[in-house]
Amino acid sequence: MDQSQRNASVTYKPLLRSSAYIDGKWVDATTGQSVDVTDPFTGGVISSIPLLEQAQVQAAIDAAERAFPAWARTPARERGKILRKLLELINQHRDDFARLITLENGKPLKEAYGEVDYGAGFVEVYAEEGQRSLGEIIPAPVPGRKLYAEREPVGVSVAITPWNFPLAMLTRKFAPALAAGCTMVAKPASQTPLAALALAQLAEEAGVPPGVFSVVTGKASMIGDLFTKSPIVRKISFTGSTEIGVQLMAASAPTVKRLSMELGGNAPMLIFDDADLGTAVDAAMIAKFRNCGQSCIAANRIYVQKGIYDTFVNTFAQRVGAMKLGDGLEMDTDIGPLIDEAAVNKVNEHLDDALAGGAVLKVGARGEGRMQPPTLVTNVAQDALLTREETFGPLAGLVAFESYDDAIRLANNTPFGLASYVCSTSMETITRATRDIESGMVGVNTGLISTPYAPFGGVKLSGIGKEGSHHGLEEYLNLKYVCHAGL
User: Fold this and answer.
1) Residue 197 reports pLDDT greater than 90
2) Strand 477-484 to strand 20-22: parallel, antiparallel, or no bridges (unpaired)?
3) CA of 222: how far to CAs of 58, 187, 248, 345, in Å?
4) Contacts of residue 194, Cβ cutoff 8 Å, sequence gap at least 6
5) Cβ count within 10 A of residue 265
6) Separation of alpha carbons 285 and 279, rounded Å
């Protein structure tokens, strides 16, 4: 199948865009400059997106400022109706969205379908949650006064999203922002901007007014600098590396913006001797290899207690060895290409380091180009590179541990604290571990923890703020206190 045939798999042509979306209009760069979006499997060009000029990005911010008063005054019920219409359109074009995500990201089609459903879930949740933003009546300490607090939208917000979940990482910012009454300008990753532009297309069809939602494309440093310095922008939501997150936080300090930061992870998985073997293997397969291992909550370090270690290794190795590497557009593919050659090089670096430290290669091999086979190494040293850095690829490393205290020490030996996983049948162990592990989220006997219905976010260097549930809505709301005297 050549690239034109692959691109033609997206049958609703308005979804495959090559322009940015600003103030209800599709625009190209004033300079005519663009950058190609390539298919990770073939290297072929899917589309070309504009490298916008600073004035064009500023125009999107200005449009969001103009649109904000009317959108903020729109009843939450009416905003919810528009989000529900958008939900219908996403579900209607589910197949095309999944294929578009696979084309630009490379992930297996079955994973892309999961992302579409996950991303749509945020739109569904916040279509209703926006109507549940309640105020407070406060008992007055003296006669003749009424005290109350009400919630108001923060204002113009921006979203900076990564390439690994190009639709879902945007909808979990976009949906609560619009539900709260904020306007939003989104900057998707340059490697995977097409899902964001497709969302803008459907948002327009759903009736989102001009200026309420814009998608800008171009040089990340220029756009990020404009976002952070702008006094108009009152809120930044970012998903990406801790390094970039820290830079955005520092640059936003002079204008004292509201920030939500979902940053780097180094998730530990603790598998105790009393774990159910089948459950533990299932959890490890999902937590490690979901999305080709390119997930911020991937199980980066898998610690297995010595009593079950050998049995776990044998069963886990069989499952890893049975995975199929190939074209993401084929439904039986388990691992597709990684996002770029640099991602494969990092996996190779971690693999080589582990082997040099005495690890044993059980399944897989070094990757080439953008293709990295699912790989398993055992007897990994506790200080190996893959235990200290986020691998972000389909390489699983197993480390043996002795005791509960040993496991918790290893799990917390990181400056990061996004997600963690515990496999055990002991309620005592589970209760102690979920209390003692330093992370924002814990999966118990499961590797699939993300849901729009629960708060998502980390501690330590893994970020601040929450996304999902009513907590995600609160990130886009200010609390205003009113003291009414003379009553």
Assistant:
1) yes
2) unpaired
3) 11, 11, 12, 28
4) 16, 17, 37, 46, 47, 49, 100, 103, 104, 166
5) 27
6) 10
Tokens coding 41: 């499997």
Summary mean pLDDT of the chain: 97
Positions of E strands within 116-255: 136-138, 146-153, 156-160, 183-187, 213-215, 233-239
Phi-psi region of 403 (alpha: psi -120 to 50; beta: other; left: phi over 0): beta
**43: how many CB neighbours lie within 10 A of its CB?**
11
- Is residue 125 pLDDT above 90, yes or no? yes
Given a cut of 90, whether residue 8 has pLDDT beyond it is yes
- pTM of the prediction? 0.97
Percent of the chain with pLDDT over 70: 100
Report the chain's terminal Cα–Cα distance, integer Å: 76
In terms of Cα–Cα distance, which of 346, 416, 339, 352 is closest to 384? 352
Helix (H) or strand (E) holding 101: helix 94-105
Residue numbers annotated as active site: 262
pLDDT of residue 1: 78
Can you state the percent helix, strand and coil of the chain, rounding each to 5?
45, 20, 35
Instruction: Report yes or no: 228 and 134 within 8 Å, Cβ to Cβ.
Output: no
Torsion sign across C-alpha atoms 335, 338, 341, 346: negative
- Residue 482 has a pLDDT of 97
- pLDDT of the residue at 317: 98
Query: Can you give the pLDDT at residue 245?
Result: 98
**Tokens representing residue 416 in the block:** 């990061």
